[in-house]
Design goal:
InterPro entries: GmhA/DiaA, Phosphoheptose_Isoase, SIS_dom, SIS_dom_sf, SIS_GmhA/DiaA_subfam. Substrate binds at residues 50-52, 63, 92-93, 118-120, 123, 173. The protein is of the alpha/beta class and 198 residues long. It is built from seven helices and five strands, in the order αβαβααβαβαβα. Strands 2-1-3-4-5 form a five-stranded parallel sheet, sandwiched between helices. The longest helix is centred in the first third of the chain and has 38 residues, at 3-40.
Length: 198
């Protein structure tokens, strides 16, 4: 790989983040409000996605249960991507498309939030998880890309779709990570106020 190729990746990522900021600020703020309301009412956040998006789910849950940038009590968040026994049992006995929806049915309650991450918006198991969450009167925050896919068509006005306006998966994932950090910061500020002391 040449230096020019490396610089191209950095430039494309930086340019997309600046362009996306204008489009995504409102849905990110809405996502913070949705999650803040749930956490304030004693509810929890469940998260699901595949591949890099699964890693983002775990990153998000770790920031809430541990901390983001300030010391605070743990907040209830759970990645549905981590229990290999559940995932392999459901995948084997039922189908891979149900590995998250069955967990939403088991752990999700009215007032909880599902963080559904899919760069295309079309991941079958994430789509089924969204369907299960809506059936349980949970709110959904979707991190998608491209045109939002099937997930974008499923959401209600009470949900939030943070859809990155790009076609390339790597660039979408990079904005998803920045979005997760924005949400974590927003939750901390909404729950505890003020800015982090440097």
């Amino acid at each position: 790989m040449t230096n020019e190729q490396i610089l191209m990746h950095f430039r494309e990522s930086a340019e997309l983040k600046m362009q996306a900021a204008e489009v995504l600020a409102d849905p990110i703020a809405k996502a913070v409000d949705i999650m803040f309301t749930a956490l304030s009412n004693g509810n929890k956040i469940l998260a699901c996605g595949n591949g890099g998006s699964a890693a983002d789910c775990q990153h998000f849950a770790a920031e809430l249960v541990g901390r983001f940038e300030r010391e605070r009590l743990p907040l209830p968040a759970m990645a549905l991507t981590t229990d290999t026994s559940i995932i392999s049992a459901v995948g084997n006995d039922y189908s891979f498309s149900e590995i998250y929806s069955k967990q939403v049915q088991a752990f999700g309650q009215a007032g909880d939030v599902l963080l559904a991450i899919s760069t295309s918006g079309n991941s079958g198991n994430v789509v089924q998880a969204v369907e299960a969450a809506l059936e349980r009167e949970m709110r959904v925050v979707a991190l998608t890309g491209k045109n939002g896919g099937v997930i974008a068509t499923m959401l209600t006005p009470e949900d939030a779709n943070i859809c990155v306006p790009h076609e390339r998966t790597a660039r979408i994932q990079e904005v998803h990570l920045l979005t997760i950090h924005c949400i974590c910061d927003g939750i901390d500020n909404a729950l505890f106020g003020g800015e982090v002391n440097e």
